[in-house]
Structure formats: structure tokens, C-alpha cells
Amino acid sequence: MTFYLLVAVIAAVVTCGASWGVVRLSHRFKLFPGIRDRDVHTTPTPRLGGIAIVAGIVVALAIASQISWFALVFADPFPIIAVVISALVVLALGVVDDLYDLDWMTKLAGQLLIAGFLAWSSLQLISLPVGPDGGITLLSPTLSLIVTVLAVVLVMNAVNFIDGLDGLVAGVTIIAGSVFFIYSYLLSIDTAQTAFNLASLVMAVLLGAIAGFLPFNWHPAKIFMGDGGALVVGMLMAVSTISVTGQIDPGIDRSQLVPAFIPLILPFAVLVVPLLDFGLAVLRRIRAGKSPFSADRKHLHHRLLDMGHSHFHAVLIFYAWTAVVAFGALLFLFWAWWWALSAVIVGLIVCTAVTLAPLSRRKRFEAAAQSAPDSDPALAQFDPLDAAAPDDREHQLFALTETSGVPPTPQSQKDTPS
């Protein structure tokens, strides 16, 4: 564990320093795009944070290769080299997109090629820990290649899709990645009798790099990780989960090893928020007759803001959902299933209540407005049932009430931005 912490700290320090440098250079040479309609921020901000993240990861992996304790991981260096090459190519693809806005077909083609290269380099999902009599199911070479490529592309885009609020992807990655690091670390000790493995090393340097980047990405962000950073984060998380899933035979001494379903559930659990957002976005755009990779302002984080949550609260809600599902899945390793399931259910209920709280407050205020006497124009004119009221009055009134705690007066109505 000490050596994993060491490489994580190295990645954090390098990424922190590189982030500062990228911010300075981006402002000096004006390397940032304009504000788009779907953007939440209002000030042009650099989107080249992926460069700093990858710099920290590459330096940390290079130093890890010189530490004797990681000799087993680097005994076959080709998978690590493939990961580094893929990260650099994904970064280049994302940076070009951040600067020049590539079309979705070009980006998808690049992602498929990178995922195929990773699968060719032996980073494949070759088996599933389910089968007859608690054994494993081996995938055919063709099916293994297809499933691996689809999984990598899916996770890359899922992570990229939620990159819409300051600190959102970084925090979700730290929470989910920490859970998966613990899992892969314990699994390696149980099955291989060693604490050093590819999945844990990749996740450790990724966590360190994201931790070094987060201070610059916290609201109000000085820099965004952009498509280059988000796609790299998604790719590395996919690589870690693929290299772990299928490592064990759940038919051997289950009292000492994890339950058979954990290797399948945990990768989805740690990515539940981005995968959910990705799935909803694809369905929404296909139903509208658009490309599944076209941009819009209907992601989950946009909906939280529209409900009345502040930027800070929306980010914390994402963190909470991720933590409940990810840590909840991990609890099944240590607790009886009924206790773990109970903890997850309680956590989900709390998260749901917090997420929907603004709607309850809005309904209470609507009721007060509807019951107000006709002679009180300060309230009656904001009644959402009043056909003469503009469509956006309810949202404006709710936003003012959230910030001030009191209903707006006619003067505050005049000052409400349109």
C-alpha cells in the first residue's frame, strides 16, 4: 500500500504543477473556446486539463517501473506501454476536439480504434465469473474483442458525458476509483498472493493525478479537463475494470473469496452515474431523430440545476449517489448481504430525498401563491395556474426564493434576469 501511495503522490504533484502551467499558457495564448449555449460557466475557461492529468500519469508510471516492488507488473511491459500509448492518442483526439470541435463520427472512429488496440494488446475481457455450478464462462476470441471494444468506448463516453460541472468528473472518479482500488487490491491478495497488479497500479496513478487536478477544477474552475481529460479518465477506468473482471474462479472456496457477482456488479456500480446519464442521453437524442453524440442541455447535472439546486449542491448530490452505490457494492465483501442491502437502500432513500427537496419546497410555495388573495399581486401573479403568467416565472420565483428565503416583491420581479 505504501508504494501505491508513493506513485499516487508523484502523480498528484506532477499534475498539480502541470495544471498551473497549462492554465498560464492557455491564458497567455488564448487557448480556450467561447461560451456555448449548453455551458454552465459564464467565463471563457481553458479546457486542456487533460494534458496535465496525462503528464502526471505518465511520470508516475515511469517512476513505478523503476521500483522493484512493481517488477511483477512490468514483467510483461507491453500492456503498460499500450495503456500509455492509448492515453496519449486519446488525449490528442480530445485536445483537437476541444480546440476545433470535431464531428461525432470522427471521434467515435478514433475511440473504436483505440479500444481495438487495447484489446489487441491483451487487455481483454476473456471470461465472466458466472457459469454452470458456480464456474466461469469463457468468451470466444471474437466475442471477447467485441465486448472489450464496446465496454471501453461505453465507459469513455459515459465519463465524458457528465463532464458539465466544476469538479464533477474529478470527484466522481476519486470516489468510484477509490472503491475499485480497494477491491482490486484485496482481490489480488486473495487470488494471486501479491498486492501488486496492473489494475491497482493504473487506478492509483489515476487517483493521484485527479487529486492533483481537482484544486484547479473546483468551482469556480480555473481549468476544465475537457474531452481529452474525460476520455482518458474513462479509458483508464475501463482498463482497470477489464483487467480485474474475470480474474477469479468463483467456484473455489467462496467463504474466502468475494461473491461471484461482485466482479460484474462493481464495475457498473462505480460508474452508475455516468452510465445512467449516457444511456438517457442516447435514448433522448435517438427519439428526437438526432445523433446519439450530439450536444444538448438535458444531462442530469443540467436537470439538477433547473430543479433549483446550486452548482455546489448539484455536484455534492452526484458525489452522494456515486458513494452510496459504489461503497454499497463493496459492503457485500465484508457484511452479510441483508445488512449491505439495507445500508444501500437507506442511502438511496436519503439521496432521493435530498435530490427532490427543491421540488417539495417549490410545491409548498406554489400552494401559498395559489391561495393568496387576489389583492396581493406580489404572490398571485406568480401562481403557475395563472394563464397570464409567463412560462418562466415559476422557475425565476423559485430561484429567488432559494437564494433569499423570502418571496420576491414587485421590485425584485423587475430585477429578475430573463
Biggest sheet features:
2 strands, antiparallel
Counted by DSSP, the helix tally is 16
Low-confidence stretches: 249-260, 385-400, 402-418
Shape: globular
Task: Tell me the span between the first and last alpha carbons.
Answer: 54 Å
Q: How large, in whole angstroms, is the Cα Rg?
A: 24 Å
Count of DSSP strands? 2
Query: Which percent band covers the strand fraction?
Result: under 5%
SSE blueprint:
Elements lengths: L1 H27 L20 H16 L13 H23 L3 H17 L6 E2 L8 E2 L2 H21 L6 H25 L5 H20 L8 H19 L17 H9 L1 H16 L12 H8 L3 H21 L5 H34 L6 H4 L12 H12 L5 H6 L3
Antiparallel strand pairs: 1-2
Helix pairs in contact: 1-2, 1-7, 2-3, 2-7, 2-8, 3-4, 3-8, 4-5, 5-8, 5-10, 6-7, 6-8, 6-9, 6-12, 7-8, 9-12, 12-13
Report on the architecture of this protein.
This protein is mostly helical. It has two domains: 2-279 and 311-317, no CATH class; 372-415, no CATH class. The chain is built from 16 helices and two strands. The protein has helices at 2-28, 49-64, 78-100, 104-120, 141-161, 168-192, 198-217, 226-244, 262-270, 272-287, 300-307, 311-331, 337-370, 377-380, 393-404, 410-415; strands at 127-128, 137-138. A two-stranded antiparallel sheet has the order 1-2. The termini are far apart. Mean pLDDT is 79; it is low at 249-260, 385-400 and 402-418.
Structural key phrases:
2 domains; mainly alpha; 1% strand; disordered C terminus
What's a concise summary of this model?
The chain has helices spanning about 1-30, 50-65, 80-100, 105-120, 140-160, 170-190, 200-215, 225-245, 260-270, 270-285, 300-305, 310-330, 335-370, 375-380, 395-405, 410-415, and strands at about 125-130, 135-140. The protein has about 425 residues and is mainly alpha-helical. It folds into two domains: about 1-280 and about 310-315, no CATH class; about 370-415, no CATH class.
